[in-house]
Write a structure and sequence with these properties.
By secondary structure, the protein is α+β, with helices and mostly antiparallel strands. Among the domains are: about 150 residues, no CATH class; about 80 residues, no CATH class. The chain contains 14 helices and 19 strands. The strands form 8 sheets. It has a 5-stranded mixed beta sheet. A two-stranded antiparallel ribbon has the order 6-7. It has a two-stranded antiparallel ribbon with strand order 8-9. Helix 1 packs across helix 3 and helix 12 packs across helix 14. The longest helix has 19 residues. Its main location: nucleus. One of its GO terms (cellular component) is nucleus.
Length: about 375
């Protein structure tokens, strides 16, 4: 069978690299690096490297590699390796990358590494503060984001679902995807007997309709649709301290380290890795780009229920709504038009009745949301006041 043949080649390729180089294989689990050989965990990659070199230098590679690649999920997954200070064990020839090492082993040492089988190894340069992708040299604050980047951009995804077009690294991943999302088998709900087309629809139905597998709070009757919501509830309502992960730069706390790290990357480190294809501006993530694209496509989905005016952002609609609730007690002495804000009255006088304009300068700190100004003011707004 072709899949079995490729798996054997993959295992042999991994063994060659681990045996003839100083790279450190590892696993990643719940925010920690995990020893490839004995499952010992650490957050410090230097400790992982020392542990692997000292404790597992004579490990039975064939047995360990087989064990790590025997289940369906890992048969297709690439083995993660740290290539910091990569070198050949057989000679002093300098190498700087995994690709260069493999080429060197084949040419100089007659290693039977089969390059026709992809996704055997996935290299990283591990650093406690700034892990790096050795393939494109992109640096990250947290390893989980580097891992996501490497899986998406530096592995072959040749197995494509013919139903939805999603691509996968290997055949087993594709099969699991198809079974879960597309294989129609007349799945029956165990609680009400309704027939669902796919396994994913059955699970979703039982979860949403019959509240199956929902986490219940141990302190009160509250139930939750996700582990994250339960953790958030425990941290904020019941004050469970171990779930309060504090941001090192501000007083905010989060129930998960991944959520806290996302906050830190967005707010404090101001990471901007996603680029707008239209203007080239960079943003933190795809969602931010989606919001930004409103600027280019002019889409206005938020409609005022009172006057029908449309807005591109919900925040602008909320600012506009003030006009329908707040009293307009700032009245123009020339034409009697009323405004909710003194600043808007001043701008109205400047543009409609310039001959009556006073000499004082409008303070930028008095400015309200731009949508409020645009609604109340009939003329063009000076560019320096647009936020």
């Amino acid at each position: 069978m072709e899949a079995a043949r490729k798996l054997l080649i993959k295992r042999r390729n991994v063994e060659y690299v681990l045996q003839y180089s100083n790279v450190t294989p590892f696993m990643w689990h719940k925010g920690k690096y995990k020893c490839f050989y004995c499952n010992e965990t650490t957050k410090d990659p230097e400790i992982l490297r020392q542990h692997t070199a000292e404790v597992h230098q004579f490990a039975n590679l064939e047995l360990v590699v087989f064990d790590r690649t025997k289940n369906n999920r890992n048969k297709d997954a690439a083995v993660k390796i740290d290539v910091t200070g990569i070198s050949c064990k057989l000679c002093p020839q300098a190498v700087t990358s995994l690709e260069e090492l493999i080429h060197h082993l084949i040419i100089a040492h007659d290693a039977e590494y089969d390059v026709s089988v992809p996704n055997c190894l996935l290299p990283f340069k591990l650093d406690k503060d700034q892990p790096t992708c050795p393939t494109c040299n992109m640096k990250f604050v947290f390893f989980e984001y580097l891992l996501r980047h490497a899986n998406k951009n530096h592995l072959s995804h040749h197995y494509i679902c013919d139903v939805c077009g999603t691509s996968f690294q290997g055949e087993n991943h594709l099969k699991m995807h198809y079974r879960y999302y597309h294989r129609e088998g007349g799945y029956t709900c165990e609680y009400c007997g309704i027939s669902l087309a796919t396994l994913s629809k059955k699970i979703l139905h039982e979860k949403n309709v019959h509240l199956v597998n929902l986490s219940t709070c141990p302190h009160c009757p509250e139930t939750f649709k996700s582990p994250y919501l339960k953790k958030l509830h425990l941290a904020n309502v019941h004050g469970v301290e171990e779930l309060k992960i504090k941001c090192p730069y501000c007083p905010k706390v989060y129930p998960q380290e991944s959520i806290m790290s996302r906050h830190m990357r967005r707010v404090h480190l101001r990471e901007k890795n996603v680029e707008c294809e239209v203007c080239g501006d960079k943003f933190f993530g795809p969602y931010d780009v989606k919001l930004h694209m409103v600027k280019h496509n002019g889409e206005k989905r938020f409609v005022c229920s009172v006057c029908g005016k449309k807005f591109s952002k919900r925040s602008n609609l909320n600012s506009h709504s003030v006009l329908h609730t707040r009293e307009k007690d700032h009245v123009c002495m020339v034409c009697n038009k009323a405004f909710a804000h003194q600043t808007n009255l001043r701008m109205h006088i400047r543009n409609r009745h310039s001959q009556y304009e006073q000499s004082e300068v409008i303070d930028d700190s008095d400015m309200v949301q731009m949508e409020v100004i645009q609604e109340e003011f009939d003329g063009d707004v000076p560019e320096q006041y647009i936020q």
